[in-house]
Amino acid sequence: MPQPTLLSDIGNVLVTFDFSIATRRAAALCSWPAESLAARLETIKGPFENGEMDDATFVKEAMVALNFQGTAAEFESIWCEIFTENALMEHTLAAIGAQVPLLLLSNTNNLHKDYLLRTFPIFRHFQDGVYSYSAKCSKPDAAIFQHTISRFDLDPAQTFYIDDLEANIATARRLGFQAHLYDIHQHSLLEAELAAWLSRAVGK
Q: Can you give 23-40 as a three-state secondary structure string?
């Protein structure tokens, strides 16, 4: 039976990221300037996040696109080490404790997902998640939300969803979720809205 649940995006919610960290490091091992590297990966990044290529294929194609002279392991390290845990969100989730189940919904690839879950303690709060690479669809399309609803038997009316992108929030609200557009610089707004929802949902 559906129960009150918190569903959260990852990037710029639970962790922040800065892709320029990767491009600066990669530039030392390839023949292209740092400012051009993101664009050179654009045609394969989307398919990778939608599960249309596996990790090894992505790494191989990315190394070719960048003329990367390092090893595959070096590329994977550079690709993944761009994140910083959001300490404010860690505090908020720790305070929620065991009041409601916590789940993830993220547009991400397998390399990033595995790195994030093994690296940052904040992910210990979450029981499971849906990721675009394994669902083979991505936000803001409704399909990935519907997949999440079905997989976890969610009632959108009882689910508090957090995301930093307006398009994703719009889809969530259209499907009936209580959705919060997150801004790390206005974290107190999330805490107030989340507290009000918890009071209604579980009486705490």
A: HHHHHCCCCCCHHHHHHH
Instruction: Identify whether residues 54 and 88 lie together within a single domain.
Output: no
Q: Each residue of 102-146: pLDDT tens digit?
A: 999 999 999 999 999 999 999 999 999 999 999 999 999 999 999
Q: How far apart are CA 52 and CA 58, in angstroms?
A: 10
d(CA 18, CA 104): 21
Judged by DSSP in three states, 56 sits in helix
Mark whether 167 and 66 lie in a shared domain.
no
| CA–CA distances in Å: residue 36 to residues 20, 25, 39, 127, 171 | 11, 13, 6, 38, 32
* 67 and 102, same domain (yes or no): no
Prediction pTM value? 0.94
Locus of tokens 């990033």: 112
Helices (H), 28-165: 34-49, 55-66, 72-80, 87-96, 110-119, 132-135, 142-152
How far, in Å, are 75, 82, 102, 183 from residue 62 at the CA level?
9, 17, 34, 31
